[in-house]
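hey so i finally got around to running both of the ones u sent me last week. sorry it took forever, my laptop kept dying halfway thru and i had to restart like 3 times lol. anyway pasting them below in the order u listed, first the sequence line then the structure token line for each. didnt double check formatting much so if smth looks off just lmk and ill redo it

first one:
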Amino acid sequence: MKLLVMYHSGVGNTKLIAEMLNNRLKQSFVTEIMAIEKIQDKFFLDNYDGYIIGFPTHHTHPSISIIEFINSMMTLCKRKPAYIFTTCGWYSANTLRIFAKICAVKNIIPVLHQSYRCAATDGTLLVPWIKVLFTFEKNLEKKVEIEAEKIKDVFNNKQYNVNLPQFKLISIINYPNKKMGQLITFNIFLHKDNCTKCGKCIKNCNMNAMKFDEDKYPLFDKGKCEKCYRCIHHCPNKALSLSRRKVPKKQLTQDFFDFNKRK
């Protein structure tokens, strides 16, 4: 059985989980792993027997990038199973339920689903003194191991039924916070003294919310931002910030997500 592990990752949480799952699954399946921005030809997706699809939760909703990717796909020739997962800084609410319905329209059948609590990409910038926001849920590796075993059992069963995540009533209480988070987009400020004009923030932005100005400094387009804050966290010189006065105290850098270093 040939599986495609595909993911959208802003800062790196989802990429980490996708890699951990792939490391487990490749022992039992033929697997390939790919970020969705690297997938140019969506027609080739029919060449796989099943999928592992991951994405971040942004204000209790799937990321814009993953929704646009699935919506742009051709409907698969036949129904194929998928394990869908999301990463969140605190609470995913009905994110997986929303995404499962979008997938089913394309003949991608969500047979299993899971949420993983990871480092909070916004909270670590807004309130960096709260240490728990930089942590992952306890026994993360064990959880991934258990999930990989579930995938093996269900995918090999060959009978695939939609496993729609249940509606979570508690999400109603969170609704005002959800809408506020979706409506408000923070400005991202440039600290020119730190900027080397490397262009990394522009290259890394899937939504094209960053572009060069006439002096080759990054210019932020607020209307295109999907609030992943990769540009801030991955800036090598802390030149971008949610604060006009201060650079970020801490960042979720590439090293932070190095799987081997986290063991």
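and the second one:
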Amino acid sequence: MGPKLATEHGGGALCGSMEGTLLAQGYDFEYLTTREEFSFWRCSCGGTFLHPRPAPTALPTIYPENYYSYNFQDKLGPLVMRFKSLTERAKVAAYTPYLRPQARVLDIGCGDGHVLRQLDDNYSPPLDLEGVEFSEHGVAATQSLGYRVHVGPIEEVELPEAAFDLVIMNQLIEHVRDPKAVLRKIARALAPGGHLFIETPNIDSLDARLFRKRYWGGYHLPRHFHLFDTVSLGRIVEESGLRTISQKPLVCPQFWIISVQNWLKDRGATKLAEWISPFNPLLLAPATVIELIHQRVSWTSNQQVVAQAASSAQGKS
């Protein structure tokens, strides 16, 4: 059992209220940094929030050295690495229409710098690439690739105004304490005509409903502080000085696998849970098929919003 964590009050991302209906309870099934139980609450405004949640002093504990975004290369076998490379290239292809030569790009929560590296490898002419990262491991890895890193949580990092042509928040908004304040900071940091890409779990996806009470992989306890459905994500974007350009479902087979893995771990089936891994190519393939089929008829495990600063969007209308 891990150490007892320092905690603080949580609240709804849209309204700030600590009032809500209990949605789910669980612990850190994935990394076992603590066996304390944490609870997600559904607010009347549509947001879902963790309360209580780890305090800032607990961040080094809940993001251990082996955290997945710090060392992709070490964790993935050749087949899974190939799958990951294809998905990252698809993301880069989605960014390309919004880029220009020497565009200034910021990846918030850049981890080991893998997205910046993909942009560097697959876009020509060169881009001005930067990241934001608070962990020592992620900062060191990204700097070793030659990229500038703004060190610290995004809530504390000072960003220049009207500076960035593209800001990327892949699996990040759900980790921050005050999503609306962070989005407002990004709105100020976007250059005229600049775009923000947000990728985050969808709390109303099929897998989220099936594993609602405890095991859903998108909970990522206790690191996810806020979760959104399509309506609440669109609303918080609009209330933060941004305008939604597009919103769509994204395929995320890993959440299906992690949900089953969490269920097994909670029942003591440790050996089987080690095999039921999001890094197992034998499981990634069928889980991907499930997500692709589901994507054709409904919203999947993840969602993406592309937004602009409201002033830029209005200027184009």
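quick thing i noticed on the 2nd:
The chain has one domain: 7-316.
anyway thats it, ttyl
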